[in-house]
Amino acid sequence: MHGRHTTSMAATQPQRKRRSFNPVSKASACTSLNLNAQVFQFTYTTLFGIHASYLFLRTGSLWPPLTAHIFCNIMGLPQIGYELAMYRRWKWGMSLLLSALSPDLSFLQAIIATYLVGICGFVYVLPRWTSTDGNLYWPREGDKLLSGKY
């Protein structure tokens, strides 16, 4: 090139180690991740289906399962990891509150305890809130059952 000294691009850039591509290990990792996601989704949709069926049978109306479905779609699944990360930023203020409640209570324990109290409270009040008079699908003891043709 007209007397100028030229170097190739390969000579100026550092040498990189070549990595071999193993399609079997990549495929098995993707398959495992996909299977875990499918099992998780199947589990929580099955549990919600049981809950929606319970609401329908206890109340005899489509409105409670419909509103529960809308509410759950808006709220989404609980993300405990996000909440732990968020409350760690407020460590000073939260540590004062937790130390007032119990000196040995950590953030993780407080958040998990709050979830457990909420779940137990929900299970405790659900039968009381869904009991209706004259329900065809789930009669209470002492309810007068309707007989005859419908």
Fold and architecture overview:
The chain is an all-alpha fold and 150 residues long. Among the domains are: 31-77, no CATH class; 78-133, no CATH class. The chain is built from six helices and no strands. Helix 2 (23-59) runs antiparallel to helix 3 (63-75) and helix 4 (80-89) crosses helix 6 (107-129). It is flat, with a radius of gyration of 29 Å. It starts with 8 loop residues before the first helix and ends in a 21-residue tail after the last helix.
The low-confidence parts are none
What is the averaged pLDDT score?
76
For the secondary structure, the number of strands is: 0
- Strand-residue fraction? under 5%
Radius of gyration: 29 Å
Q: Alpha-carbon distance between the termini?
A: 98 Å
Number of helical elements:
6
- What is the approximate shape? flat
Q: Portion of residues in helices?
A: 55-70%
Q: Helix and strand succession?
A: HHHHHH
Largest sheet features: none
Main attributes of the structure:
single chain, 150 residues, mainly alpha, 6 helices, 65% helix, 0% strand
Quick summary:
This protein is an all-alpha fold and 150 residues long. The chain contains six helices and no strands.
Q: How are the secondary structure elements laid out?
A:
Blueprint: H1 9-12, H2 23-59, H3 63-75, H4 80-89, H5 91-101, H6 107-129
Helix pairs in contact: 2-3, 4-6
